[in-house]
Amino acid sequence: MNQALQAAQIGSRAARLRCEFSIGQSIGHVIVWVVLTIVTLGLALLVFPYYLNRAVLNRTEVLDQQGRPIGKLRCNFDLISSIGHVIIWGILILITFGIAGFFYLYRVVRVVLSDTVIEYY
Question: What are the TM regions of this chain, as residue ranges (predicted)?
């Protein structure tokens, strides 16, 4: 019963999300990841989707029904905790000649969202 009450209170508070990820920040991320991709001979592309999603989520606010910020999303993903996931999917992508990469992108979103919390102000 208590969980239902908490869910109802939270549900009535949060109306939508607003992301403040600018073009300038995008350009900075692209430059860093292009350099990392060249230096690592393409291996950085296996972890790029994690950090792309993390960057966007960490710049997202939770708004109430009137559009006022009431919290922010905080993605706690780090590569160390998911290195096994990256290695296994890297091998699957190689074995399937890239076909597993389509499924990998969906799994990345699941992993990153599972490591994301809402920090209320």
Answer: 30-52, 86-106
